[in-house]
Write a structure and sequence with these properties.
The chain has 160 residues and is an alpha+beta fold. Strand 2 and strand 3 form a beta hairpin.
Length: 160
């Protein structure tokens, strides 16, 4: 019976490259001359540190641009709160990986409401969709691509 998995994953190698590109851009920007500002990737989180909150906002925009250039959807960013320690402003940006339960239930409901003859089941942080026909599975993929989701979705492990 044909099936495929719906997942939401982030390619951390591409994130690392995007952070390095953003650091290079930070070094060349005129408005950051003489300012202690940096991007740091640690434990699957990007740590931004700068002297002012406005600079942090500019750095977030630079990082978003670098992520987009690397083909990473910026909807995976999970911004943390801005912490001020002395003269420095620090913010950590995490990445949403996997499909949480609320989104999974919403996707299952969306698939069932479409009246396509497939079964969707939640398996941890991914969804497995099975059906009798390959065309039905492709219809489900098209349906989910059309809809606007909170997270980017990838379809993998397609089996015939």
């Amino acid at each position: 019976m044909p099936s495929f998995d719906i997942v939401s994953e982030v390619e951390m190698n591409e994130v690392r490259n995007a952070v390095e590109n953003a650091n290079r851009e930070l070094d060349t920007r005129f408005d950051f001359r003489g300012v202690e500002a940096s991007f740091e990737l640690k434990d699957d989180k990007v740590k931004l540190s700068a002297d002012a909150e406005l600079q942090l906002q500019q750095m977030r925009d630079m990082l978003r641009g670098a992520l987009i250039k690397r083909g990473i959807d910026v909807r995976v960013l999970d911004p943390g709160s801005i912490v001020r320690s002395g003269k420095r402003h620090i913010q950590e940006l995490g990445f949403r990986q996997g499909i949480d339960t609320a989104l999974a239930k919403k996707l299952v409901k969306q698939i069932k409401d479409s009246k396509i003859k497939v079964q969707a089941s939640i398996q941890g942080e991914q969804l497995r969709v099975t059906g009798k026909k390959r065309d039905d599975l492709q219809q489900v993929m098209a349906l989910l691509r059309q809809g606007e989701q909170e997270q980017p979705l990838q379809f993998n492990n397609f089996r015939d």
